[in-house]
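hey team, just a heads up i'm posting the complex here instead of the shared drive bc the drive is being weird again. everything in one block, sequence lines first with there labels, then the predicted structure for the whole assembly after. its two chains so it's a bit long, scroll down
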Amino acid sequence: MIVEAEAIYIGLAVVFGLFMAWGIGANDVANAMATSVGSKVLTIRSAVLVAAVFEFAGAVLAGGAVTSTIRKGIVDSSLLVDQPELLIYGMLASLLAAGVWLLIASKRGWPVSTTHSIVGAIVGFAAVGIGMEAVKWAKVGTIVMSWVVSPLTAGIIAYMIFSSVQYLVLEREDPLERARRYVPFYMFLAGFTIALVTIFKGLTHVGLDLTRAQSYATAAGIGLVIAIIGKIFISRIKVDPDAERAFHYATVERVFGVLMVVTACGMAFAHGSNDVANSIGPVAAVVAIASSGSVGASAAVPMWVLLVGGVGIVIGLATYGHKVIATVGHGITHLTPSRGFAAELAAASTIVVASGTGLPISTTHTLVGAVLGVGIARGIAAIDLRVVRSILMSWIITIPAGATLSIVFFYGLRALLG
Amino acid sequence: MVSGYNISGIFGRSPVAPLQQHMAKVRECAAELVPFVQAVLAQDADGILQHRGRIEVLEDEADELKKQVRLHLPNSLFMPVARTDLLEILRVQDRIANRAKDVSGLMVGRRMVLPEVFGPGFLQLVERALATVLQAERSINELDELFETGFRGREVDAVQRMIEELSTLESETDSIQIKLRESLFKVEDTLPPVNVMFFYRIVDLTGELADMALRVGARLLLLLAK
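-- predicted structure starts here --
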């Protein structure tokens, strides 16, 4: 019966996967791009363009590891050898649950995490629909731990990056000269880190197979190219005496603005590698089971499935996301590029490293951790801890919500399709 | 809350610009004292009322700004400086405007006519006091640069120099006050005693105005010390 229903299952998975990816593009991307728009480095139009290109690239190039964690890391499929369709219903239910929960939360204005919704949903259907023993609790424990560790790590990295900016540039007698000199190094760092992690994770699925030395060389090359292009743009920045009189660091900040374009791309790439992969994992699971008829198949994630995620996110951006980016970006005032870049660079590297190890972490929470890190280095004029608390609370609420919805959908789908 | 689903909400409104706007308003209010005292010296009744009116309006506006700043500084804000220190700066700034209002109010209320031995000296005191207020405003205008550098390095040195300058200006008002009291003491037997009492009083109040300006700087130094 699996083979007959194959087309229906795959069709539903693609539709639900697109739905969730659309939701991510429509809403979640705004969080990744908002800091750049808020510090007036990117216009809305260019933010949407950067997001579309780099989210897509992140999902396709670096989304594989998280995809496979979601696909087969949480549920112990060996218990389901006799009933592979249960796993299909579950994955479909999880996609629908996460998508619906994202939609409800966005309408209500609650800060929720796509990652937490999908992990909660999968754990929910597996634990209740199949049985407690069907959940790989050790792996789930690791994932939950990573939700605590990733904002902390990003916070510490952001603290160190911003402190280095203070020491190298801001507190000196000649901050502008120093900014022109050191900003290309940070650009190199951003390009090198993200490229290296992406290459190490493996690009075999796009036909690239590099040795260790080649990987380092390629990453360094990418970093260098970015730094050189950045240096050209920086050398073109002229001092605006009027702006300088009102605020002595106006030109320094414009130099950091060039750097922030780079970290904004990195942030979109990281978000694509992590969050888009969340919506694609269950699709990949359904496709693998439906087309092979068994749960044991260890086929690689097909390229077209990754493309579905990339396309979904771009549609989400085009239809609705640009409005949300505008709203969120305008809400952020007083975040200057010298801070914004530090937070983005720290968050993007943390997320890409986590994605590389297959851990689905929350982009928003990691970015919030990074912002707090800059704040602790006395970098941000005012952080509203009430809002930070409400974002942290959403961790706790989203998991049972995703789980409950997915349990309901699981029984519903089983009754309908079974 | 509309901004719930995004991270823009975590960036609170920076207290810097509102604090600077309040200081600008306070300086405007204190600056009106100079034409006001000139009008008193010229015994120009219209001018006196007009400048007195301006001072009252500006003091009200400063009060309103003060309330706004307080409303936007909830204690859930995490800032590079202590919230209480910022509120204290705000309070001291506001007292400068209050003193300007007290001095002008007292002079109008008692329909003061300043004797030749006292009047020009008092105008000089008011001008000097205003110079301290201007210097305090200059220091407060460095707050955005201080936030930018994270309260470290050359900007801290620059602000410290400004506050030393402020301190010098304030001691000049002190010595003018001493001279004024001396000259007043020499002639006080020839003047109506109640009037003399209030001449001493407006000298004290103007001195306090300069003192408040210095205290704005001292509070700013406290921010740097952390």
